[in-house]
Each structure stands twice: as C-alpha cells, then as structure tokens.
Amino acid sequence: MNNERPLILISNDDGYKARGVNFLAEMLAPVADVIVMAPDGGRSGMGCAITSKEPVYYSLVKECEHLAIYKSSGTPVDCIKM
C-alpha cells in the first residue's frame, strides 16, 4: 500500500462475495489503496451487532496491487473493528 494514495476501507452486511462490494473495490483500486473487510457470509440485519461469546477470525482472500480482500467470521461491526 502506498502513502501517496487515499486508503479506503469497505465493508457490508452481505459478505465479501457480494457483487456490489467487489465492484466498488475494483472501481476504487485505480485511484486508492482499498481494503475490504466483510463477513464470510450474509449478515443482513446485524449492522449494529457485535460478537461477544465466541472468537472472531479473519483471513486474507485476495491481494493484488492496491487491493486486499479479507473475510471474517464476525458481524459487520466486528469487521470494522478489526
């Protein structure tokens, strides 16, 4: 990642495979360094929930120039906190 470019964090509640989040990330990568941290599956309706009774894991799914995509076992809020 380059300090001369804006750094943009993208997350959602539909998961890292959602078309919208991937389209947005690919469109922004030419002008910014983009990090996607999203749930590993759909978490609709859990936008304010946090995980408190079990460990939350994340892993790198894809990395290329100016773009890194991570998935998390947690909720959208957990993703942002990570």
Structural class: alpha/beta
**Secondary structure tally: strands:** 4
Mean pLDDT: 92
What coarse outline follows from CA principal-axis ratios? elongated
Taking the alpha carbons of the first and last residues, their distance comes to 18 Å
Strand content: 25-35%
Profile the largest sheet. 4 strands, mixed
Give helix and strand order, one letter per element, not per position.
EHEEEH
How is the largest sheet built, in terms of strand order? 1-2-4-3
State the helix count: 2
| Share of residues in helices | 10-25%
Structural write-up:
The protein has 82 residues and is α/β, with parallel strands linked by helices. The chain is 20% helix and 29% strand. Strand 1, helix 1 (19-28) and strand 2 (33-39) form a beta-alpha-beta unit. The chain has a 4-stranded mixed sheet with strand order 1-2-4-3. It has 2 helices and 4 strands.
Keywords:
82 residues, alpha/beta, four-stranded mixed β-sheet, 2 helices, 29% strand
Topology:
Layout: E1 7-10, H1 19-28, E2 33-39, E3 58-64, E4 67-72, H2 76-81
Parallel strand pairs: 1-2, 2-4
Antiparallel strand pairs: 3-4
Give a brief rundown of this model.
By secondary structure, the chain is an alpha/beta fold. Helices cover 20% and strands 29% of the residues. Strands 1-2-4-3 form a 4-stranded mixed β-sheet.
